[in-house]
Structure formats: structure tokens, C-alpha cells
Amino acid sequence: MVRTPGVAAGQASSNDATPGKLMKVPAFGLGEITQPSLAGDVFQFNATGVYYARPASSFGATDTPYQGNFHVWKSQRDEDSRAALLIAQGSAEPGAYIGVRHGSLQGPWGRLFHTENVVGTVSQSAGKVTGAAVQYGSGPGGKFRRFADGTQECWVTSPEVLTDTLVGSRYISAEGWEWDFPAEFISTPNVHATARRWSGAHAHSAMIGSGSFGINGCKLLLSTEFMGNSGFLHG
């Protein structure tokens, strides 16, 4: 390189962060066809820029979200304050993660949800979300929705139910309708049911039957004012 008098010298390399140096293309990965590589720790002291991380197993799990290759967009205020956005290379799902480090303290990597992973199979490991944020499914017993925190909802509309047994001043469906949940719960859930009239007077109501009630299903009963009325149960 020929240096012109009065003009600052250029960078010695694309990672040269010496103050006053002329910035070359592709300094710090800007305009670079092949991004500068990080040895493993994405928070090692180098300048703000775009990099490619190839972590070594000796660096441990905190240096990258897992052992793999990542495109790294890093911002660094000073040696103690750094933040990074990582996008996984070679994964069928475009996984993206954010992380920060202050001094020697680094928080956990946070996985970003997007259109390809927000809906799917939910899962957890030690209280940490490892799968999708919400899961949908269906079966003979209706439909269900499961959330990453473990909450699950199931809903269904029964076949037509006939009231045929007098109890007090009202008629109920003695056999009721056995509802097998479309997905198993981890503990006995709270069940709410409503009734919709199919025939007869408008005094239809739903009840939860005693006995068959657990993590796999329950019994729903229809109650009407007159014998022989029918309706549908919604759980």
C-alpha cells in the first residue's frame, strides 16, 4: 500500500480496531463474502461487526446456544458491555438467539420465536422452553390447545343426548355422555360444560357427572324440564 502524506494508514487486517485507521472493505465483516471467524466465544473482545462463529467444545455451553455454527451480529460498547444476535447455520429450522454479557457475567441465550417455530410440539427442560410456544391437535374426543407453560385446553361438541330419567323435578340423561379428552392432562382438570337444545322446551342445562372423571376423560349429563328432550353438550 502506498501511503499519501496527511492521510491515515489503512487497517492492518479486517479486524484491526486501532483508532484513526482507514476502514477497508470488508472491515469487521461489512461487505465481506466470507465473514471473519470467531474461535468459539462469540463475546471475545473484538469490535462491533458481522462474524461467523465455529465454537469449540472446550468453550462450554454458555459461549453459544449449543455446539454448532452461527452467523453473528455483535454490538460492543466496551470490553464489559456486549450483545449478540446469532442465527444458526445448517439447521432445518432457522433458529435465532440473542444474548448479552456484562464483564464476566453472561445471561442465558434467548431463543426467538418466528413463523416456523411458534406453532408446533411444545416441550420443556428444567422449566426452560425447548419446543414451540403453542401446540394444536385433534382426535375423536375433540380438539386441544397446549401452551409452552404446560397449560392445556380441550373442547368438544357431543352427539345428540336424550333425557330419560326423572331426578327431582327435572329429567337427566341417565347414561350421560362419556367424554374422552383428545389429549391427556397431567392432573385432573377443571371441566365446564354448556347445553344446546335440540328438541323440547328451552330449559336445557349441562352437568358434570360423578364417577368417571380423571386425566383422560369425564362424564357429561344433560338436564331438561321434560322427558324426551334432547340436546348437545359442549365441554
Short description:
The chain has strands at about 35-40, 50-55, 70-80, 80-90, 95-100, 105, 110, 125, 130, 135-140, 140-145, 150-155, 160, 165, 170, 175-180, 195-200, 205-215, 215-225, 230-235. The protein contains no helices and 20 strands.
Helix content: under 10%
Total DSSP helices:
0
Q: Would you report the number of β strands?
A: 20
**Percent of sequence in beta strands:** 35-45%
Reading the helices and strands in chain order gives: EEEEEEEEEEEEEEEEEEEE
Low-confidence stretches: none
Sketch the major β-sheet: 7 strands, mixed
- The radius of gyration is 31 Å
Instruction: Tell me the overall shape.
Output: rod-shaped
Structure in words:
The strands form five sheets. Strands 1, 2, 3, 4, 5, 6 and 7 form a seven-stranded mixed beta sheet that branches. Strands 14, 15, 16, 18 and 19 form a five-stranded antiparallel beta sheet that branches. The protein is rod-shaped and about 100 Å long. With 235 residues, the protein is mostly beta strands. The chain has no helices and 20 strands.
Topology at a glance:
Blueprint: E1 37-38, E2 49-53, E3 70-78, E4 81-88, E5 96-102, E6 105-106, E7 110-111, E8 124-125, E9 128-129, E10 134-139, E11 142-147, E12 152-155, E13 161-162, E14 165-167, E15 170-172, E16 177-180, E17 194-199, E18 205-213, E19 217-224, E20 230-234
Parallel strand pairs: 1-2
Antiparallel strand pairs: 2-3, 3-4, 4-5, 5-6, 5-7, 8-9, 10-11, 11-12, 13-20, 14-15, 15-19, 16-19, 17-20, 18-19
